[in-house]
Amino acid sequence: MKSNKLFELKEDQNSVEDLLSELDVSRWREYQKLGITTDALWISKNAESSNSKKFIIPTREELPSNSSNFHGLWIPEIPYQFITRFTSSGDTVWSVFGGSGTDYKVCQLLNRECIINDINPIEDYIQFGDSRTFNPGKKVKLALLHPPYHDIVKYSEDPADGSNQENIVEFLKWFRDVLINVDQYLEEDGHIIIACSNVYVNSEELELGLYLFQIAQLMGYTLKSHIIKDFGETKGTEGKNYNINYYRQLKGGYNNFYGDNIGILRKRKSKNNVSSIFNEIINTLNI
Q: Domain 39-284 in CATH: superfamily?
């Protein structure tokens, strides 16, 4: 592993690799130097000055670069953070929506096994598979999920693709089926990471990412944390697109979305019995 100049680590290479192989909280100062964050607001370098108290997403020379074919919201820092925190060397990670293979590359760097599938695989190490039915062949410690944000970007013409679901309700049912399948193969006390933004539909903002978290909570998962990560530089921030979006926002009376929702959820029953709270509210309101 290359040294990370940003944090000026004094440890030698073997020490850094040992530090990342299994979380040892007694060495918390070293993790802090490595930039393993517990902050719930992540800011890209282009959005905030370097002296901010918020977590500035670092440039790590050792991590793979984003594919230019994708929109860049699932940055390598996301799997890096959670693979480091919630798995140990040799553990198995499931990349449920393989995309350009970022999770696979980060797992290789951190000495984790990665099972990776996608309905539109673009690399030979990504297995073809519908995540509602795909069998990873073994139990996994961590599942990483970066689904389509409904139909914002059409990834294929396949009706099994989440981006082709007819409406939000059908998309949520589709994602529920994905989670039901993932749950079969996730170890007890394992974690799932879900990233999904809000969407704007029929002149109304829908908190799509939060809906996905709530589906997992209704299945009995515990929401450990909700992180907001700014989008950073994407295709939508290009000058021509920014101006078009600004005009639409003024006309439509709404604001720009600058945050991606990331949920850390654990396969452990909620002590607050959140699923019962949701059901009671629904029943009380006669929804």
A: Vaccinia Virus protein VP39 (3.40.50.150)
